[in-house]
Amino acid sequence: MFAFIERRTLEHIERVRKCLSAIATVTPYGDALNERAEGHDLSRFGPEERIALTAPPEQHLATAR
């Protein structure tokens, strides 16, 4: 299960990077967008967010109440 979540998250990060890089070529804010593209969602693999990504859905519901 975690391998699926990790793969899906990495695919999402790559899609966002490609989109931000494409937009960066047509805006005066290109440098800032390229910087954001490099760091987008890397926190997902930190200890706090990694736990949230792998927790069962019922645990999320319990903490949301």
Structural overview:
- With 65 residues, the chain is mainly α.
- It has one domain (2-64).
- It contains four helices and no strands.
- The protein has helices at residues 2-24, 30-39, 47-54, 57-64.
- Helix 1 runs antiparallel to helix 2 (30-39).
Give a nutshell description of this structure.
The chain has 65 residues and is an all-alpha fold. The chain has helices spanning 2-24, 30-39, 47-54, 57-64. It has one domain (2-64).
N-to-C SSE string, H for helix and E for strand: HHHH
Derived structural class: mainly alpha
Contiguous helical run count? 4
Distance between the termini: 25 Å
Shape: elongated
Number of strands: 0
Question: What portion of residues belong to β-strands?
Answer: under 5%
Tally of discrete structural domains? 1
**Sheet bearing the most strands, described?**
none
**Low-confidence spans: pLDDT under 50, at least 5 residues?**
none
Supply Rg: 15 Å
What percent of the residues sit in helical stretches (DSSP H or I)?
Answer: over 70%
Mean pLDDT: 79
Task: Identify the notable features of this structure and list them briefly.
65 residues; mainly alpha; 4 helices
